[in-house]
């Protein structure tokens, strides 16, 4: 009887020890257990904001918890990334990130975060861009606009959603290529930059499609050129820069990042939630027919790799136009 009791005691001890290891794993597998704060790096009504609010209900459906969407525009999107960088790596604060916050802005000026240390969750979409002027502006083509800038250097202006954004840098590249001077005017987001051209405060705006669609369809904006790689259904007759012989197109994406050291389990759960959302048929239809955005899902590894690729590409452009920070 004594031997049997000792054996039983050892079994009980082993089971208890095993349970001690299993409890934390079980707790982690319940993530998320409360609402998650989602930062939007640009202003309400812009492309990022509209897209995130379109996919959020399906992310909530997958996660079983509400998402608290917080617009935190500023510094071309860098303010939101600074906030998430300093947050706890507990899976309850995430920020969407426009490409410049991770790729171009840290090469232009000092920032309070290291983009390479962030945890890259996924990228669900790429932006589409068009150079617009007001409907009654005297320029009807890109060539007209360039000729006017050449005749009156540094008088034409263009609005952007922030210095260092690809909206800004694409026009800087074009100006450098054509030997002209135009002044950028930064705003907190695309809606404000579009309002500036509609109000006659600037000459042109390089805007993303989702932010510009309502003003264009109302007849208030005139497209001069598509800056994205391919023609856009919103303005099917408008040529791209590549159509016009330029060896350039404007690329940027929207992705999501967690603070450094966020556990892989949390990252993967959020990646799967974003994937689930963009796979929904009604999301795909709305994005294509109303926002004119291209869904191009990339998992965390592919998203990081794409940012690293464009860190070099946009870095070369920054150097060429004289905007790269001197080290």
From TrEMBL:
Keywords: Receptor, Signal
CDD domains for the chain: PBP2_Bug_TTT (cd07012)
Signal peptide: 1-29
Protein name per the record: Tripartite-type tricarboxylate transporter, receptor component TctC
Source lineage: Bacteria, Pseudomonadati, Thermodesulfobacteriota, Desulfobulbia, Desulfobulbales
Family, per entry: Belongs to the UPF0065 (bug) family.
InterPro entries attached to this UniProt entry: BUG, Bug_dom1
Source species of the chain: Desulfofustis glycolicus DSM 9705
SUPFAM superfamilies per record: Periplasmic binding protein-like II
